[in-house]
Amino acid sequence: MITLKSPREVEEMAKSGAILAGMHVGLREIIKPGISSWDIEEFARKYFKEHGAVAAQIGFEGYEYATCVSVNDEICHGFPRKKLILKEGDLVKVDTVVDYHGAFSDSCWSYVVGKASPEVERLMEVTKKALYLGIDQAKVGNRIGDIGAVIQKYVEDENGYGDVREFIGHGIGPTMHESPNVPHYGEAGKGVRLREGMTITIEPMVTTGDWRADMSDPNGWVARTVDGSLCCQYEHTIVITKDGPKILTSQDPDIDAKYLYKNN
Asked: Could you say which cofactors this protein requires (predicted)?
């Protein structure tokens, strides 16, 4: 079932999203060569607690951590690990969900450890722009397929990267994952029609090689690229409004403005 949120519910989700965005901003100073991915987990847990929020991922389908910390060829759902020490040039994705008094927000952001190589820098830029191209299609009257089609065209046809299919965006609130599914591939004009008050995530995962995922890890969670290629991800929670999409997990309105509406 697709739920349409009231202005009050959206306001509460925006508060949740601001906490999540603040955590991501804080990670800019934390992520550096020599820390472990567990240090990221500890920072997130402490930040959420200090801001009166709960890490909603803990306990979800048996998951034990507040964050997913996925490095280099890991597509998503990487466990934070004390023995995984980050080194110069690593590409790190940090994905987490916040519950603030029952209001959910979901966001993933990618970080480079130290200085990015040209390959990583370009992958991050393309993935981030793909996210915002998808957000730009999230308008009343458009369809879910319009979001996926523009992302797939930009990622695959225009840049020659892989557009991961196995993991997709989704509706959110009052639970973590709800309808509708929001693929980052597809056909324009197809799928569920977007309505005012819908809250969804858009979260493209882009690889430098094959788009397929290897799910053979014995922990049953972490997904990797089948060919060892790099993967990048950016994700925002948004609400569909009569005035266009509103980002509820924005880290900086100026960053959003840099990418949104360029093609209008």
From this structure: Co(2+); Zn(2+); Mn(2+); Fe(2+)
Question: 170 a known binding residue?
Answer: yes
The answer to whether residue 198 sits within a structural domain is: yes
pLDDT digits over 40-55, tens only?
999 999 999 999 999 9
Q: Is 106 annotated as a binding residue?
A: yes
- 2 within a domain of the structure (yes/no): no
| Domain encompassing residue 178 | 7-259
Does the residue 134 lie in any domain? yes
Q: Is 119 annotated among the ligand-binding residues? A: no
203 is in an annotated binding site: yes
62-103 tens-digit pLDDT: 999 999 999 999 999 999 999 999 999 999 999 999 999 999
> b/e string for 157-190 if b means 16 or more Cβ within 10 A?
eebebbbbbebbbbbbbeebebebebbbbbebee
Q: Is 95 annotated as a binding residue?
A: yes
